Amino acid sequence: MSLTGEFLIFILLAVVAMGGGILMLNLSKVVHMVVALVFTFISIAGIYVMLSAEFIAVVQILIYSGAITIIMLFGIMLTRHNDVSEPKTSWPRKIIVFLGVIGFGVAVYFGIYDLDLGTYETTLHENNTEQIGVTLYTKFIIPFELMSVVLLVALIGAIVLAKKDEEEEAKEE
């Protein structure tokens, strides 16, 4: 295996993605956790660019790095927090979790090492945005519309739950 520029960029993006995930799990301040998560999202968008999926990369940055992160920060700022610190995790438990993660990684590696998905003629790198749109609105129109209904129901449910909390707080006062 030769060390090409593309390979080195992939390794850099993969290390940043994994580092952001590890930092997110180990940092104690919530805002720092969100910043680490943004690093992970942006590095994954970089990997999408390397795969010639520019549309997906832009969506990754706009939706995840932008909207989801802002929603998480608003959720953190608008909720009440009890400053009850959780007990520290013991070293044996951390070692067991680390060995479990390593075991999972090895199982995934051997699961996909000789995986043959066949060869497909594709021109996705030429007009990927157009092809995604055509496929989404022809083959997958029913799941697409069902997903929009599910998201609408989730939004209405969140509003109803927030109203109930507001009413309960008003009754307590």
From TrEMBL:
Keywords: Cell membrane, Membrane, NAD, Oxidoreductase, Quinone, Transmembrane, Transmembrane helix. It is a multi-pass membrane protein. It catalyses: a quinone + NADH + 5 H(+)(in) = a quinol + NAD(+) + 4 H(+)(out). The keyword Coiled coil does not apply. InterPro entries: NADH_UbQ/plastoQ_OxRdtase_su6, Nuo/plastoQ_OxRdtase_6_NuoJ. Its EC number is 7.1.1.-. The chain crosses the membrane at residues 6-25, 30-49, 55-74, 95-113, 140-162. It is found in: Cell membrane. One of its GO terms (molecular function) is oxidoreductase activity. It is an enzyme of class 7 (translocase). It comes from the Bacteria. Pfam families: Oxidored_q3. Its main location: membrane. Belongs to the complex I subunit 6 family. NDH-1 shuttles electrons from NADH, via FMN and iron-sulfur (Fe-S) centers, to quinones in the respiratory chain. Couples the redox reaction to proton translocation (for every two electrons transferred, four hydrogen ions are translocated across the cytoplasmic membrane), and thus conserves the redox energy in a proton gradient. This is NADH-quinone oxidoreductase subunit J. It comes from Litchfieldia luteola. The lineage of its organism: Bacteria, Bacillati, Bacillota, Bacilli, Bacillales.
